[in-house]
Amino acid sequence: MIDLHLIGIGTGNPDHLTAQAVAAMNRADLILLPRKGQAKSDLIDLRREICAQVLTGPTRIVEFDLPVRGNGATYLDDVNAWHDAIADAWRVQIAEHLPGGGKLALLVWGDPSLYDSTLRIADRLRSAGVEIAVRVVPGITSIQALTAAHAMPLNPLAGPVTITTGRLLRAHGWPAGADTIVVMLDSGCAFEGLQPQGITIWWGAYLGMAHEALEQGPLAQAGPRIALRRAELRARHGWIMDVYLMRRELADGT
């Protein structure tokens, strides 16, 4: 039996770890750290730093190469094939390093519940016959880090929030009936396809890290600044992880 702990680690700042996360890491027999290639070496460096800061016992750390997602014609097919490959990689590491079972921990960026597929990949292990019990340790999400960085509330007074992706915003435009939206997993600047009048944007990249970047303002003025800064940061670091919130002015002017 594998006791699998999926531990939310926030957005890159070791201070984002909860006491529950630190305890779960120290109870683990093994922590698996994924390598995502040289361009994203910052990500595994941060995970290594977190482990170095909080581990006090004999927990083993093993690094492995994360499979690369394909770029075919069908996005969902590519993602499903990628998840199958990741599940296979986990299974190989478990067979090699925990052949008799034990406590395995995976450090999940943000929180396992929000636009992360670690739980879905764990289900693939079950389907393949691996005996696992999954436990989730929640973490600070990029949305929480964004609103904290801008010192702002997530929702308007008594109002809803729609969370979507850059892909959907680009394909379908502003979600119907929404006044406040959060956009995640935007590989470009999907907001450029919107009519900017009456929209304010709050944007953040590398939230919680030493090179955190923030911009905010009316979309007509802030949007071009964000696009330029995003391109510069991506060129400098080789990767970028960002999120943004947009709010439409309501009919009553709020």
Automatic annotation (TrEMBL):
InterPro entries in UniProt = 4pyrrol_Mease (IPR000878), 4pyrrol_Methylase_sf (IPR035996), 4pyrrole_Mease_sub1 (IPR014777), 4pyrrole_Mease_sub2 (IPR014776), CobF (IPR012797)
**BP GO annotations:** cobalamin biosynthetic process; methylation
Record keyword Transferase present:
yes
Q: What is its EC number?
A: 2.1.1.152
Pfam families per the record? TP_methylase
- Keyword Transferase (UniProt): yes
Domain named Tetrapyrrole methylase: residues: 4-222
Q: Which GO terms describe its molecular function?
A: precorrin-6A synthase (deacetylating) activity
Alphabetic keyword roster: Cobalamin biosynthesis, Methyltransferase, S-adenosyl-L-methionine, Transferase
Q: What pathway, per the record?
A: Cofactor biosynthesis; adenosylcobalamin biosynthesis
Q: Which reaction does it catalyse?
A: precorrin-5 + S-adenosyl-L-methionine + H2O = precorrin-6A + acetate + S-adenosyl-L-homocysteine + 2 H(+)
Q: What is the recorded name of this protein?
A: Precorrin-6A synthase [deacetylating]
The species this protein belongs to is Novosphingobium aromaticivorans (strain ATCC 700278 / DSM 12444 / CCUG 56034 / CIP 105152 / NBRC 16084 / F199)
